[in-house]
Amino acid sequence: MTKKKIITIILSVTGTLLILGITAGVLLSPYLFGVGFKKVLNCKPEEITEIQLSNGNVGVGTVVTDPEEIKEIFKLFDDVRVKKVPGLPPSQYCGYYLSATFQNEKGHIYASFTFGPGARIADRLADVWYDADNFMTEQETDAFIEKYHIGEEDAQKRREERELIEQILTEQKQKQQAAE
User: Fold this and answer.
1) What pLDDT, on a 0 to 100 scale, did the predictor assign at position 68?
2) Tell me, what's the pLDDT at 67?
3) In total, how many domains does the chain have?
4) What range does the domain containing 150 cover?
5) What per-residue confidence (pLDDT) applies to 92?
6) Mean pLDDT for the chain?
7) Which of 23, 34, 72, 152 is the most exposed place for a label (fewest CB within 10 A)?
8) pTM value?
9) Does residue 15 fall inside a structural domain?
10) How many CB atoms lie within 10 A of CB 161?
11) Does residue 2 lie in a domain region?
12) What percent of the chain is modeled with pLDDT above 90?
């Protein structure tokens, strides 16, 4: 084999390995290095007209439509970086703590996530789990639940309101039947 052929083979192999390495790096970077969570959200606060919040532990939800509050919710993700967790799709797990769905006035859903205090966020649209850095502490989560009225006390209050309404409707129905 001539020296020229050997150099050509070495350069070809090196070039191929370099291309494969770059491709692998690009494909694996969300798993190895992470990205800012706002990149995962893939939308801006101005595009969102409604955020549906719910607490899966107590079965209470609310809808946020105030543009200033939507911006405030987005600020929760300012410093959050996430890395994909391979082989852990959220659809394999039942139950959740908190849930947020971001949509515009036409009903297009940009993002839908489950989360809680700590380091895991589940992307329900992409069916992917993320490990998160700098996400909500337990105290911040409690404050969030209290602010948006999606806690246990709120669930109890809503149950009591429903029971009272049912009682009033039943009494009205009984009075109507008695009058007939």
Assistant:
1) 95
2) 95
3) 1
4) 30-179
5) 52
6) 81
7) 23
8) 0.68
9) no
10) 10
11) no
12) 17
Instruction: Spell out the SS3 assignment of 49-101.
Output: CEEEEEECCCCEEEEECCHHHHHHHHHCCCCCEEEEECCCCHHHCCCCCEEEE
Calculate ∠ Cα 17-23-29, nearest 5°: 125
For residue 139, tell me if it sits in a domain.
Answer: yes
User: What does DSSP assign to residue 103?
Assistant: E
pLDDT score for 30: 52
Any idea what the CATH number is for the domain that residue 41 is in?
3.30.1490
- Tokens representing 88 are 């852990």
State how far the alpha carbon of 86 is from the alpha carbons of 17, 110, 155, in Å: 24, 22, 35
DSSP structural state of residue 47: G
94 has a pLDDT exceeding 60: no
Q: What's the CA gap between 90 and 39, in Å, rounded?
A: 19
Q: Does residue 157 register a pLDDT over 90?
A: no
Which amino acid, 31? Y
Instruction: Mention every residue, 6+ apart, whose C-beta is less than 8 A from residue 88.
Output: 129
Other beta carbons within 10 angstroms of residue 133's beta carbon come to 13
- Note whether residue 1 is domain-resident: no
pLDDT per residue over 102-143, tens digit each?
Answer: 999 999 999 888 887 666 788 888 888 888 887 788 888 888
